[in-house]
Amino acid sequence: MNICEDGAELIMRALLDAGVAIEAGVWSVEDAERVATSRFAPRITRVLVEPHQVDVGDALQVVSDIHAVLDRHDVDAPRLQHGDGEATWILIEDAVRRGIDTRVGLEDTLHGPDGEVTTGNEALVRAARALGAGAT
């Protein structure tokens, strides 16, 4: 559930009522505040830290600020961090440093960490693993 979407609280309630776990997509610091102060925060099973269309130069600060908000509010659900476009690889490297889950695929980027056009999802996953993703 992307927290920035209209009706997010109503949808979270409906998910829980239907027995479906909540995976909260957090795109911004504002989203992090919204999810952390939500009555549903204790029932979230995973937080996706996924800044949307953020500049590579701003990406690390944005995710650091998001994690700080979640930490300050004791949101203890596991986190998965990833980015898109030019911020993909720097955010994967940061997730590895933080020891949290990450992911990558063609919906995130069409380029490997070297900037070359990728041959597909398998190549992206291999490149992420070479950076340490999935090492635990």
How would you explain this protein's 3D organization?
It is a single chain. The chain is an alpha/beta fold. It has a single domain, classed as Rossmann fold (3-Layer(aba) Sandwich). It is built from five helices and four strands; from the N terminus they run H-E-H-E-H-E-H-E-H. Helix 3 runs parallel beside helix 4. The radius of gyration is 15 Å and the shape is globular.
Structure described in brief:
With 136 residues, this protein is an alpha/beta fold. It has five helices and four strands, in the order αβαβαβαβα. Helix 3 links the parallel strand 2 and strand 3.
Using the CA coordinates, give the radius of gyration.
15 Å
From the spread of the alpha carbons, the general shape counts as globular
From the 3D structure, determine the CATH topology: Rossmann fold
Give the fraction of residues assigned to helices.
Answer: 40-55%
Annotation field: number of helices: 5
Number of domains: 1
Strand order, biggest sheet? 1-2-3-4
| Poorly predicted parts | none
- Indicate the CATH architecture: 3-Layer(aba) Sandwich
Q: What class do helices, strands and sheet pairing give?
A: alpha/beta
The overall pLDDT, averaged over residues, is 96
Q: Could you give the count of β-strands?
A: 4
Strand content: 5-15%
Largest sheet: 4 strands, parallel
**Element pattern in H and E:** HEHEHEHEH
Distance between the termini: 27 Å
| CATH class group | Alpha Beta
